Amino acid sequence: MASPAVVLVGADKGGVGKTTVARTLLDYLQARKLPTRAFDTESPKGTLKRFHPEITEIVDITTVADQMRVFDSLSEAQVTVIDVRAGLLTPTLRALRDIGFTDAARKGQISLTLFHILGPTISSLEEITETAEHVGGTRYHLVKNFINNTSFFEWDQATYDNYFRRLEGVAEITIPKLNEMAAEQVELSGVPFLSFVANKTSKGEPAAYSFVLRGYVRHWLSHVWAEYDRIKLSDHLGPRDVVPLRAGQSG
């Protein structure tokens, strides 16, 4: 029997594209037929829920009541994806430590995966200092999300290495930049990336999205999913019988 699987997507710094990454993860897991639910901690409004309303609930992860709502209902048959609001990553990891969740992950009773989204400045690397002491027992992934035309880690290699040597078994993931017009049209459509590629509305009806922009999203999503395949993400989230799909294919 597979262990309950939890995926945290977050950063203490804002504006680094956490929800974009969470959306690609939900599409990836859906394409691989992994039963998934999601929690949007951007209470009370929420952004993730706008794109994946059928599987997403909005919670205030800082309250004990909503922590119980999330972690007391874990299922071995489902993957739980949590989009952690800016500024709440370290507090959330601290809470997981305090309730014994991290210890359970170390013992293999729960599968805990962390996607730590980095921005292009030194302040993002400094977050590693805060999170490093809380990531024992997790599969820790540092994600370079190129949401802007900026360069990452424009400092000397010694500085870069100084932060990364503090972590054991950390994996790096690169999310390439999506064409700006394509990204804007997906935002306006309010549908998952997969639905946009498939030219479907939120109700599953035929849409009239641009063929060109759909092509840009399909190409981008295939690169994102290749990164998830490289780290064997679907394998880590539980031994289930799934058939890998390429971005743009329907189930």
TrEMBL record:
Taxonomic superkingdom: Bacteria
Any Pfam family: CbiA
InterPro entries in the cross-refs: CobQ/CobB/MinD/ParA_Nub-bd_dom (IPR002586), P-loop_NTPase (IPR027417)
Coiled-coil segments on the chain, per record: none
Domain CobQ/CobB/MinD/ParA nucleotide binding: 10-139
Annotated protein name in UniProt: CobQ/CobB/MinD/ParA nucleotide binding domain-containing protein
Species of origin: Rhodoplanes serenus
Organism ancestry: Bacteria, Pseudomonadati, Pseudomonadota, Alphaproteobacteria, Hyphomicrobiales
